Amino acid sequence: MPIGPYENFATCVAAQQEKGRDEEQAKKICGTIEANMTKMLVLRKSAEEQCYTLGVVYEPDVVDTEGDFAKAETIESAAWAFMERLQTMAKGASTILKSCLDAEGEGITLDVTELTEMAKADGLDDQHLQVDEPLGTIVESYLAPTDLDIGGQQVKKGAWLLGVRWTPEMFTKIKSGERTGLSMFGRLDRVKGVPVGE
Amino acid sequence: MANKIVQLFVKNIAAVDKAANRRQFLVIKSAKEGAVKMSKEAMTFDEAMMGRKMHKVYMALSEHYGALMETLDSIRNSDDENKGAAIKGALTGYIGAMTKAVPGMMTEMEGDEGKSALDPASLITVRDQMDTIIKEMTMADVKDKKAPDASALTKMAHGIAAMFGRAAGATDETIAELEKAAKGEPEVVVPAEVTARMAKSETEAAELKKSNEELAKQVTALREDAELRKFAEEVAGYTSIGLDPTKDAALLKSVSEKLTPEHAGRIRELFKAAVAQAAASKLLGEIGSSAMGAAAESAAGQVQQKVAEVMQKNDKLSIEQARGAVFAADPALYERWRVETTVKV
């Protein structure tokens, strides 16, 4: 299997060794490239099918099953921060990979502060089990600019909508009804006893 | 009144079975089916209340289940040599925690009539997920030849799932489904063709066994006949002392088989000695009764004739004395007589 610009893994290792890296370093670099290529292949395969859902992450001034609600501006802030963070992590990962390839035998220093987060950078989960493997790709994330009617369902202005292309395994669960909606996971601050909408 | 969220940081977004926002997917698209519209039936108040209660129960279950999975993963990836015991410990802890938590869940669901308070599909999903993890764990550990007893673990997992269902008031049908593997080995369905072949093979094997037994009996009988013939031939040598080959071959066989070789040999010596004694008595009887008792040309006949002649000349001599005189006068005749009358013992 091709490894990035190289014909196969052995060719990749040989090329890295020609650049002055020892065998262990060469294999680590080629392994990183291979892992990213594999992930891309998986995503490409699932893209051939649609495996798509559009769902509401949260909508303003609607009390959820936990007795919480949020204003539109709070949801907007969270939605933007979420997407910014994902893209920042993707850019960081890209930078690290590029640094590895361009190091040309010299030592490189990695800031691993958010490396754990990068290892699971698709922003998706299954049943809040903190699943490590790829589950899909977020292809749409937007805030309803006005009240919408989508497929006969009313969506309030300011609702956070998420479009996802899931892996075939996850999509099978969705089609079978094992997964019916979206739920966010993170941190929040509450003010108790507030009339809904205020 | 409600809780207003004022600061929100979203780490990830999960696909879930029951979303806290009470929303289902607006659009689902797959390659072949295209867009699938979701149901837009209005939710009733009771359904909304049930959703709230179920969500709390679900979250409580998820916390325990998540902790169990985390423990099992940790065990799977550890260097622990006795992973089976560690897993058993984790499951025991899990059961203990659930036993404490379930009453609270029951209280949460109180007031709802009937069963099926929990979604049976969720329980079955929990059970299936546990099965999957156990299978993966077993596959991983096979490399190290430390595989835990997957069958026992699977039974425990199914038993736990059934316990949830029972505690949460699931229907009997759901509990039966969950307990299917917990009660024992899964039923093995054997195709009719295989059953027929097995039955045929069993019949053939039984016939073959019967035939072998008959052949074995025949061989045994033949061997016994051959041995009896051998003993009958031997007994034929003892007819002079009253033994009958047709009747006493079995007796001699029994003597040979049941007595020690020394004793059996001694009995044969006695038989032969008796035969010799009978032969000698017959000879002497013939000598005493008639000079024509033995053929004239035989040594015995010549000895009889000469003994008679000596006794006629000296009537005071006994037969033995006369015979001794004959043998002393004719050593060659004695030698011929001895050879002729000797019975090998």
Summarize the model shown.
Chain A has a domain of 137 residues. Helices cover 41% and strands 24% of the residues of chain A.
Describe the fold and architecture.
The complex is a heterodimer of chains A (198) and B (345). Chain A is built from five helices and eight strands; from the N terminus they run ααββααβββββαβ. With 198 residues, chain A is of the alpha+beta class. Chain A has a domain at 40-176. In chain A, the strands form two sheets. In chain A, strands 1-7-4 form a three-stranded antiparallel sheet. Mean pLDDT of chain A is 83; it is low at 40-47. Chain B is mainly α and 345 residues long. Chain B has eleven helices and three strands; from the N terminus they run E-E-E-H-H-H-H-H-H-H-H-H-H-H. Chain B has helices at residues 45-76, 83-109, 120-142, 150-167, 172-179, 192-236, 245-258, 261-289, 299-313, 319-329, 331-341, and strands at residues 2-16, 27-30, 34-37. Chain B has a two-stranded antiparallel sheet. The longest helix of chain B is centred in the middle third of the chain and has 45 residues, at 192-236. The chains are: A alpha+beta (198), B mainly alpha (345). Chains A and B meet through strand 1, strand 2, helix 3, strand 3 and strand 7 of A and strand 1, strand 2 and helix 1 of B.
